[in-house]
Every structure is written in C-alpha cells, then in structure tokens.
Amino acid sequence: MAEMKKTINIARAVLALAMVLILGHGYAQSSLDLRINEVLVINDSNYVDSYGRRNGWIEIFNTAYNTVDIGGMYLTDDPANPTKYWIPKGDPITSIAPRNYVLFFADSMPTRGIQHLNFKLKEGGSLALFESNGRTMIDAVKLGPQKPDVSYGRLEDGGVEWGFLKKTTPGANNYTGVVVTAGEKFGAMDPFGVGMAVIAMSVVFSALILLYIVFKNTKKIYGINIRKLFSKPEVEVAEPKPLEEEISGEVNAAIALALHMYVNALHDHEETVLTIKKVARTYSPWSSKIYGLRNVPR
Q: Percentages helix, strand, coil for the chain, rounded to the nearest 5?
C-alpha cells in the first residue's frame, strides 16, 4: 500500500510539472515574439488613418500563439536614440492577439493618439523596436530606396526574407497568394495514407517503449515492484483455529443423568384431581334477611 501511494505521488508530481511547462509555454508573454512586419514610407494614395490623412505606417506582427502587450516598449527611427517614442501602457490597442497585428502611423503627430508616432519615415533611414528597458533591441530594419504606395515587408508574416510586396496589407497577411496547408501538402505526398499509418504506428510503439523505460527506471530508483503493484492483491487465508479441549468424563456423566431423569419423568408426582365437598349450610349468607334492613326508611 505504501509503494502504491509513493508511485501515485510521483505520477502527480510529473503531471503537475508537465502542466506547468505546457501552460507556462502557452501563456507566457514574451516581447521577443514581436516583429516589424511591413512598412510603407511613401504614402501618396494608399491607406488613410482615422483622421483621413495619408502618412507612412508601420505594422508590428505578433508571431506567438499567445497575446503580447507592446505597451511600455519603444519605437525609433534613430538607433542612437532608442527611446524616441514610448508606447503608452494600459490601452487595449497595444494588446496584440496571437498571430495578429497593430499599426502605427509615422506622422509626427503623437497628440492624435497612441498609434501616432513622433517621427516620420524617410528613405534610406532605419526603424527599430526596443524592449521596455530602452536597451534591448527586439527587431530592426534598414529602409533603402522606396517606391510610392508600395510597402516593404517580410514576404511571409514573421519570416526572414524581405522585399517589396505585390499588395499593401496593413493589418493583414503579407502573403496574398494561394495558401497550401500542411495537411494538403502531406496529402499530396502520401495520397494512400501509407506514410500516415507508419507514423501512427511509430508513435504508438515509441510511447510503449518510453513507458517501459520509465517503469523500469522507477523500479530501480525507488525499489517499487511494478508487477506486484498492478496485480490483484493477495487474499490472506486465515489459519484454522485449534479444536477446543474435549469434555471431561464427569461432565458427560452429569449430562447423561439429567437426560435420563427427564426421559423417565423422575420427579415429584402432582395430583391433578379436584374434590368438591358439599357445605352444611344450604343458603347463602348474602341473601339472609338478618343482614337486610329491619325498618323501612322514612
């Protein structure tokens, strides 16, 4: 029983550690997941802001599968001044959803709102995103010669390769071609499902081997008998109690005598005949006149 409790506690600890790692990886916020994704420097007849003005704009992409808040970080067009524009905290705009975007307008009009920067973009300039400490650079891009109304960005969201995009896509996917999913690619490579079957069987057998190794090492480390742990509990068979001592001869003689007397009715004889004798008086004293009233009451 103690071995079973020990194994259960070990399993709980492993499960808790796995959940912490999974949840921590799934929900931890990291500013390093942010990328400068697309930039438009010369905006003659392109995207307009909420004020109806056309200015250069910057798209920041969250490559993570969890929400990242860009509030408190810095955008700058001058590497020598990394804290040029501080992005205010506590606004829903700065909270970038998983695999989503936020736009900033380089119009040198910060009084118009959080998304409006205090500088303008220039050809041949640069752009950088810094961590909230003002020293750690998260991402940067060098802006060469630009084309009017043609954005310069990553050919795939969060990718490495940069170039001029066929379409400006503020707040949307940079790649505007036909997207082929991983499932479709795999289906084209394995139309009959043979590879899928092999992979599935490999995963199953790998898991069985891993379980065998884990249980075997658990037995070595903690001295737990796994076979005994998962087998049916043994039923303890009670030893037969020794027979009681034989009855002595005196007791047997007394019992025999009592039975003999009961069978032969050896006891006092009791007469059950009732005798009724006639009394001398033939009248009942209760009806005698001498006991009645002598005078009539008046």
A: 35, 15, 50
